[in-house]
Amino acid sequence: MSALNRYNDENALIGVKETPVGKSTKKAFDPQAFLAKVGAGKAILKFERSQHVFTQGDVADAVFYIQKGRVKLTVVSEQGKEAVVGILEPGQFFGEGCLNGHPLRIATATAVEECMITSISKEAMIHTVQSEPKFSELFMAYLLTRNSRIEEDLIDQLFNSSEKRLARLLLLLAHFGTEGTTQPILIDISQETLAEMIGTTRSRVSFFMNKFRKLGLISYNGKIEVHNSLLDAVLHEKPEIERDDDL
């Protein structure tokens, strides 16, 4: 028996298979599996409603990824005025400022409901972004989407009335698409928080909310429900949504 035949027979008996030329034995990297599991530089954290993930001024040494629940970001000025700058949902990162050289947190992150969050150390995050293209693509897509949202928010703040800003915010919170159906806002959000997010007073938000309800643009049924008529009013600048504030 030749040496080649003997080698093949022995491999057949013990179940050994040669690795095909050009194929890697490394398991394909799964970004979602990476984010869902504890590992080097990673931890899975649980937060109750109203519990802080971090506070403004804390050392910035980790990036966070929301697996479950929602997180509110707030900032406080030197004069003590607080503003809500965002409501984050599952599938979103936050705290990534540490990757850009920010030594301290510039905002406070608070759970608005029970949350499960992945904490990734700065070092582990940098290593994964550099070594895993699929994860890098996921993170880059998030950053680009967030940047577009920030630009839209700035334009909204500069050129639209507080009434129109509120209408846009309600549509965003309801994840209103093009289906033209009623969409509920799935989180409990106060009129005070809505006011902070659009830069106006609670009394103005209350006035606009009552106006929207009377016009049939929204309704209350335990949760705020946004109707397609509100989207139509914003997109086509109907007269029911004023362009200028009448204070």
UniProtKB/TrEMBL annotation:
Organism whose genome encodes this protein: Bradyrhizobium ottawaense
* Domain of life assignment: Bacteria
| Name of the protein in question | CRP/FNR family cyclic AMP-dependent transcriptional regulator
Pfam families registered for this protein in UniProt: cNMP_binding, HTH_Crp_2
Residue span, HTH crp-type domain: 160-230
Instruction: Kindly state which keywords UniProt assigns to this record, in alphabetical order.
Output: DNA-binding, Transcription, Transcription regulation
The answer, when asked if Transcription is one of the entry's keywords, is yes
Which ranges carry the Cyclic nucleotide-binding domain? 47-125
Q: Does the keyword Transcription apply?
A: yes
